[in-house]
Amino acid sequence: MTTTATQDRPGPESRPDRARTPGAALAVLPDVLRAALAWTDAHRADFALPGDVLEPHTQVNATLKPLGELAQLGSTIRRTTAPGTPEHERAGDLVAYAWEQVAAGDLLLELLRAEPFAAYPYEIYAAFAGYGLRHEGFEALARPLTATRAWAHTEQHANRQLGLVNSERRVGVVTHTDAGAVLSRTWLGGLSEPWMFEGPSGYALTHTVFHLTDWGRMPDRVPEKIDGYLRTWLPAWADGCLESGQWDLTGELLAVAASLPGPAPEPLLDAVWPVLADVQHPTGCVPETGPPAQDTAAPDPYPFIDCYHSTLVTAVAAALSLRSLRSPGQTDGSAPGRERRTA
Question: Model's pTM, two decimal places?
């Protein structure tokens, strides 16, 4: 995903007024969520895996990565929205579609057999396992692999290792290392100087929060010092992302803001959400970066690869923000439902 600022930054005369209007976020969020999910559902075929997905030449970032993100973000939206609502049902349908694409786990088992040294099949599987979709054969093979010295000593950035720890928690195995120790080595855990924020560090800190809180499910895992640090600096970082047209990172920062313990940061949400809502195309998609498309009638204003992630991020950030604003302090520590296992 793109992490550098665009060259065509909006000039001062075209920048939106980001003064807070109380209730502005709640006024736009339901439509933003509905439209983003509608676009995703209409483009579900673009998430379909190719027939040669198991071949060595297949690009993981263009095939399995989008599908895994659909499963993860869809399950988060399903968990965060009210049962019986169209958004809840649509999110569940998208997760079910992703599960069908991996042949109810069989394909992930084949991936694990082919690449026992790789973490990504396990992490994709964990997105389904956290939702209650399990595969006994996959877990039977993964169990001895995750007990190896190689697994415990895979060299990764700290926020990626935190993601692996969260995947292990979801699957229900003993984690290979202590999450607190890993957190202290992240950019965010070190309370880095806020003016050192830029694209890569921004994505590192958002994913640190996602993995730490299990995608907003357990806000109380955020330590008090990190909570205070984020509440202080998220507004400035989000403002910088808006000025440089970094819509994908803006959405991730909003999802982080809605995943903090305690009261929702209403001034931030009210100031930023109307801007992102204006960037969203009438079809529901959101570009990753750059000036929004001017043709409001275009059925597909951006290539799929340039907008699918930012659209999913916008949807999940909207769902988390609605929960945060409507139910202050609510956490979801409940089980994801009865697990379905396949042989």
Answer: 0.91
